[in-house]
Amino acid sequence: MRDNADGMWTNNFSKYELAVLHYMKRTIVLTLIKFAVLWVLFWMLGLGQEYLVSVGVLTSTRSFLGGLHFNGFWSCLIFSTMFFAVVLTLQYLVPLTPQLQILILLICLAVSRRVGPVISANRPKYSSLQKRRFLYIGLFVILAYCIILAFCETRFSDIIAYTVACQTIQLVWGKVKGGNVQ
Fold first, then answer.
1. Which residues contact 115 (CB under 8 A, 6 or more apart)?
2. Cis peptide before 117, with omega less than 30 degrees from 0?
3. Percent of the chain scored above 90 by pLDDT?
4. Is residue 100 within 8 Å of 91, Cβ to Cβ?
5. Alpha helices of the chain — where are they, by DSSP H?
6. CB contact at 8 A, 128 and 111
7. In contact, 53 and 156? CB cutoff 8 Å
8. Contact assessment for residue 48 and residue 42, using Cβ atoms and an 8 Å cutoff
9. 105, pLDDT greater than 90
10. Could you tell me if 161 and 104 are in contact, meaning their C-beta atoms sit under 8 angstroms apart?
11. pLDDT reading at 182 higher than 70
12. Is there a contact between 67 and 180 (Cβ–Cβ < 8 Å)?
């Protein structure tokens, strides 16, 4: 029965499509492992909620604007750990006024408009229309954060601003490096 099921899958997809499916499955599993490892780390440091907020903000912008992409799990995990450590440390070391939070987001909006999106070399090439759509959605997300911070001050406001700022820095770095880092 197992052979029949496997044959059903392999007969319906080309070798390329099977490779893409395998890559997607592997990427999802490794991303979930990375997420869990980092959540446990920051939870143990008493920053579990802050980490989750930062992950949400990063995911909502990075999904559309892109950024640095690493070819290895360990290099990605190390960079991600540093990224979130910087964001979660800055909120305590350099508290921001609401006006500064919005100014930072507006600068990030302008930079992202100029630089984004930065797409991994491992992904298929996108048409100019798809790139434009991703860019506009990413810009809309940053603008939404500006509006949220303009009207609602929360204990996570600095995290939102610093996450978008660090995402924008890595977006520029990714553009310079061509998307992927060895």
1. 168, 171, 172, 175
2. yes
3. 57
4. no
5. 2-12, 15-44, 48-65, 73-93, 98-115, 128-151, 157-177
6. no
7. yes
8. yes
9. yes
10. yes
11. no
12. no
Structure tokens given for 45? 């440091």
Q: Give the span between the Cα atoms of 28 and 103, in whole angstroms.
A: 35
Q: What is the CA radius of gyration of the chain?
A: 19
The single-letter code of the amino acid at 57 is V
pLDDT at 49 over 50: yes
Which residue in this structure is represented by tokens 């929360």? Answer: 154
Residue 2 has which token pair? 């197992």
Residue type for position 121? A
**Strand stretches in the chain, DSSP E:** 69-70, 180-181
Q: Provide the residue type at 23 as one letter.
A: Y
How far is residue 171's CA from residue 115's CA, in Å, rounded to a whole number?
7
Name the β-bridge partners of 69.
Answer: 180
